[in-house]
């Protein structure tokens, strides 16, 4: 659960753009004067209201770094010193971004917890001064207001936000393995109440403006404007500023109250919070929940609870001290390094490094309305792509159409879409049984049955009806793309696009290029994937590509462990407590035992002994008995519709008994079992980099975490080797190699890293 | 949605209270706005085209427009429509059997009389051999009724058509919730006691919460007032400007009422009540009093208030439209020609009320006229902010280039020719009936002040708009 939760939360990273500072903007400022134009922050005076504008140059977002902080302090000092000014408005000049957070590179350079603590304390001091400002300051928020940005906003006396989809507020620090270190853990509970503050800080979720208003996080909303005599975004910011100025004046004249009127429920909750016993109960409940969900693998949530507790129980000074100290401790943990690494990797994988394609894909066609095909259709129409969805039967097609509709309708229920928007998005989807309209298609993605002959057949049919420039993408999880492309007239237009199920939830897209795939085809596929909101890794063609290839040896080890008599439930517990979102046996059921068998056989043929370990016979027998996993209702577990509890499939006992292998006691401790699983994954991943399947370690980490559920707290196989130490990894592998043989032999690149301590995947 | 309507009702009540308190006030700003008819040469002497029938307005009337919840509150929509029809019959003396067809516009339909045109016509004593249908296109419903009539006559299908519109906001259909309706319908079908009981056992108290007719746009879920406030903000129209414009509208309407220009009104003897002879929403106030009102939609800092918005109104209007030949053959002296018209539509979210901006240049181009050719402008005033935003949009090259695909702006209408007998803000706005009032005001102004062309334009829910050229009938 933890990891799936962490993955889910990581998926929200996308919202907060780039937190990194761009290059170094060299500037020397020594004198502060009103005439001096500053780089990031400037202010003007309208009547008796100072309008402070944040606008970091050469960047789409504003981030808090040292320069910004010192400029802000300068500006505030001038405003406090100026008798003409009675109040102030703090606003960003960038539509779509207030302040996206603090610059995480500030932390990367810290070598001791004390350094990080100092960073936190500087922020705390700055915001404390702002909070105690004798002149009211109104934060006018349009666009992302996250992390340090939100901490800045809640230190102001009043907050006004545009009611825009782009306006999101949140404290996502926990997703980076740290905590809101500039007073956030202290101010938030007072502002929105302890339960809501815990929810925000422990999940890191983004909160939309209208919700924020209800919670009391912002005081007023401003509706975004349409076109007037200026572009809408520009005028909306202006309008926000105008409204903020009237409120700033009102605050200075004491005509506007900063206290929001609370409902009965809020009053009751805040009353309850004054009772120490109630507070203790809340801490206890939250702690228990966190421990259960994180399985002790993520330190940040518990420290957040501690910091909140310190503030509420022992007063502000103790609270701020606890916050900054725990911030310092967290900043240097392996977990935060792993999570920040994932964040950076994700930012990289959200860019198209192949440049803009010559022709934008406007008409997309998808073959096969199965789970995958319909899933791909959903994420495509959602982003305004006209999509043809072709299947061979009416039943298959309508099932697929219903899946797309349901996916959109679920968003309506969550109020992420209006029913009208749903209908208009759904009208982008055209279901059909023939090839009508394919003559206009810019890209065809096939998601038909995983069988080379079938793929060849549709490829030939499609090439017969599509224009010359049309790209043929295959959504296959294991069939080599060059084999599919072998019958193509235009192999440079053939590419692999490996989506993960369920497509609308899983963020990863693995794009596979063959030697013949043109760069423009790749650029197009990446552009489509980005449009669909995917995090993309681009890998070379080869059996199993990257993700399936790493999964296969791991699953082989899982079979081996089961054959050695470990109970599937126990194996699930062991793997989840190591950080996997889904237990290993459950994973096999989810993937589908038949698929697993297919992959194991194919890759077994291609890679030979290295993929050995478990016996494929186990999977074969399961398939022959119809134990295909969740989809057939039985696998290692029995699944019942509507019931979340699953019980072990007792019929598996016979199969397992017939294939029983003796466990080797020297490598069968719980820890050994966990490491055997993870080591085979890591070794194969590093081999993929060695062989050039992967272009960068970052893509390898992103693929492993987002596609396969590799423990996010480890940061991915490459980050794991860096943080864990290559030598230790090699030692482990050698130990298992001596027990089992060649499948554990460490690859050359891993050995190189072990031999030279200076070699790291991430510098 | 229900909250929206209740809030509208609340606003209404404040409006009326406000209206009561500050009912009569001397006007100050209206006189200089009266214009001398501009003497200039026209691009075209007439818009008559060879081989195309001239279509004329023979007569047009309306019953007084009243604040909803006042004298008409116990009536049904077809009662108002019938009164307008009777008034038209009386004033034009047209033989009932000459009328080929009757079309009415309405917006919020009374479910009992969904074809309100037919019910009203039967009651007004028209021949039961005269077919009638009802059209709906939000605030331009009666415009649609008129242009449908124009189409029928131009294509030779009819010679004499009555077009009109009606709206009764004093009563609106409030329904049971969908769940309740479903249960009631299922109960109808249930055959045994057991089936009935099992259905009844599914009843929950929330089934009883009623469903109010939507005042919000279906597509965007935004009320029109809210959209108007955003529109005003987008065009940087201040609260002061809006209040000033509303005051102008009320002052001019009062003057027109006092001087007897609102000659399209026919008195209506309301059953059980006194005869209503004039509009009751005209209430010139002072800027100071208007400034005291709180914003009605975007709270607490919006600019659209009850005082600078049109109010919920009951009313009906009707017009007799004929081919010129037929009118002359019957011995009528027509009031005006109905010429080119244009419907437009645009983004219902951010440009909901910009219909006039889009329609004006198009209809002028179609007719071969320019803004200078127009002697009288009659625009529907939904909100002060909407009118002023339209002015700014029409006067902006940037807007014309970026949103309308035009090279230059069309220009905003000169105020001295604009709605000088008041508008929807002051006279009232029964949704389905306003279009005919606009055209009759335009025709009567041309007759009185001697101009040649008038331009009628209106915005409507759904982001639609309409414009039509009215040409004076030679004296």
Automatic annotation (TrEMBL), chain A:
The keyword Acetylation applies. SUPFAM superfamilies: 6-phosphogluconate dehydrogenase C-terminal domain-like (SSF48179), ClpP/crotonase (SSF52096), NAD(P)-binding Rossmann-fold domains (SSF51735). Keywords: Acetylation, Fatty acid metabolism, Lipid metabolism, Lyase, Membrane, Methylation, Mitochondrion, Mitochondrion inner membrane, Multifunctional enzyme, NAD, Oxidoreductase, Phosphoprotein, Transferase, Transit peptide. It is found in: Mitochondrion inner membrane. Residues 544-639 form the 3-hydroxyacyl-CoA dehydrogenase C-terminal domain. Residues 364-541 form the 3-hydroxyacyl-CoA dehydrogenase NAD binding domain. The record marks 151, 173 as: Important for long-chain enoyl-CoA hydratase activity. This is Trifunctional enzyme subunit alpha, mitochondrial. It comes from Mesocricetus auratus. The gene is Hadha.
UniProtKB/TrEMBL annotation, chain B:
PROSITE patterns: THIOLASE_1, THIOLASE_2, THIOLASE_3. Gene3D superfamilies: 3.40.47.10. GO terms for cellular component: endoplasmic reticulum; mitochondrial fatty acid beta-oxidation multienzyme complex; mitochondrial inner membrane; mitochondrial nucleoid; mitochondrial outer membrane; nucleoplasm. GO terms for biological process: cellular response to lipopolysaccharide; fatty acid beta-oxidation; gene expression. It catalyses: dodecanoyl-CoA + acetyl-CoA = 3-oxotetradecanoyl-CoA + CoA; decanoyl-CoA + acetyl-CoA = 3-oxododecanoyl-CoA + CoA; tetradecanoyl-CoA + acetyl-CoA = 3-oxohexadecanoyl-CoA + CoA; an acyl-CoA + acetyl-CoA = a 3-oxoacyl-CoA + CoA. Pathway: Lipid metabolism; fatty acid beta-oxidation. Keywords: Acetylation, Acyltransferase, Endoplasmic reticulum, Fatty acid metabolism, Lipid metabolism, Membrane, Mitochondrion, Mitochondrion inner membrane, Mitochondrion outer membrane, Transferase, Transit peptide. CDD domains: thiolase. It is an enzyme of class 2 (transferase). Residues 55-325 form the Thiolase N-terminal domain. Residues 332-471 form the Thiolase C-terminal domain. It holds the Pfam family Thiolase_C. It is found in: Endoplasmic reticulum; Mitochondrion inner membrane; Mitochondrion outer membrane. Its EC number is 2.3.1.155, 2.3.1.16. GO terms for molecular function: acetyl-CoA C-acetyltransferase activity; acetyl-CoA C-myristoyltransferase activity; lncRNA binding. Mitochondrial trifunctional enzyme catalyzes the last three of the four reactions of the mitochondrial beta-oxidation pathway. The mitochondrial beta-oxidation pathway is the major energy-producing process in tissues and is performed through four consecutive reactions breaking down fatty acids into acetyl-CoA. Among the enzymes involved in this pathway, the trifunctional enzyme exhibits specificity for long-chain fatty acids. Heterotetramer of 2 alpha/HADHA and 2 beta/HADHB subunits; forms the mitochondrial trifunctional enzyme. Also purified as higher order heterooligomers including a 4 alpha/HADHA and 4 beta/HADHB heterooligomer which physiological significance remains unclear. The mitochondrial trifunctional enzyme interacts with MTLN. Interacts with RSAD2/viperin. Belongs to the thiolase-like superfamily. Thiolase family. This is Trifunctional enzyme subunit beta, mitochondrial. It comes from Mesocricetus auratus. The gene is Hadhb.
